[in-house]
Write a structure and sequence with these properties.
Layout: H1 7-20, H2 25-31, H3 42-52, H4 57-70, H5 78-83, H6 86-91, H7 96-110, H8 124-132, H9 139-149, H10 161-170, H11 179-188, H12 195-206
Length: about 220
């Protein structure tokens, strides 16, 4: 069974982290409960993630609006994306690579390589493997999907620059921690099984949205 972030779980996580992590406890007191909540708009979430890669929030929103305008303002089904000419998608602002990425995602959904119907029953590791088989989706995007769409409690986004920078500042580290060091720090401060919530508090501490690496 995979627990997801809810009002009750957010309170439990805050209490657990406050007890075990004296550096994070003041941030928790100041910020209040984590506000991440799961949704089931999985396909759209992944398309938006691909469109928004390496873009500011404003630019990503503008291009997403242009993208949906191609389909009369509605978010397109996978087959509609496959059928749409590349040049039309490029005119909306998608790069050549992002056109290839959203179409590859659509193919994975259409042929069942990605099946959202029972995704809630799969482990984080299984979902990461499934998603990263899509061109343009890397581990960071998969981590963000697990956290922000599925609301999984126990995700440590080791590729996120914001969490890495926040950890450096919060724990007084001489350098930005590498992924392996992040795992050790999380274990030392007893983040498990609330790594997602702890990471959210680190973002709040840094006053920073999730960092955006390549994929």
């Amino acid at each position: 069974m995979h627990f997801v972030i809810s009002d009750a779980q957010a309170r439990i996580a805050a209490a657990h982290l406050s007890r075990h992590d004296t550096c994070l406890a003041p941030v928790i007191r100041q910020t209040g409960p984590c506000t991440i909540r799961p949704h089931t708009d999985y396909y759209h979430e992944l398309v938006r993630s691909i469109i928004g890669q390496q873009l500011s929030v404003k630019a990503a929103a503008t291009i997403t609006d242009r993208f949906t305008a191609i389909f009369a303002g509605a978010f397109p089904a996978p087959q509609a994306i496959i059928n749409c000419p590349d040049d039309t998608l490029r005119a909306a602002g998608l790069s050549r690579s992002k056109v290839a990425y959203v179409k590859d995602l659509a193919r994975h959904v259409l042929d069942g390589r990605i099946d959202f119907a029972d995704i809630e029953h799969r482990s984080n590791e299984q979902i990461i493997i499934e998603l990263t088989a899509v061109k343009g989706i890397g581990e960071w995007t998969a981590h963000m999907f697990l956290m922000w769409a599925m609301g999984r409690l126990d995700v440590l986004p080791t590729g996120d620059l914001g969490v890495r920078m926040g950890m450096q500042k919060l724990y007084g580290l001489p350098t930005i921690p590498a992924p392996a060091e992040m795992i050790v720090i999380a274990e030392q401060h007893h983040w498990h099984p609330f790594e997602s919530v702890a990471s959210w508090y680190v973002w709040q501490y840094l006053d920073n949205a999730p960092g955006t690496p390549r994929t």
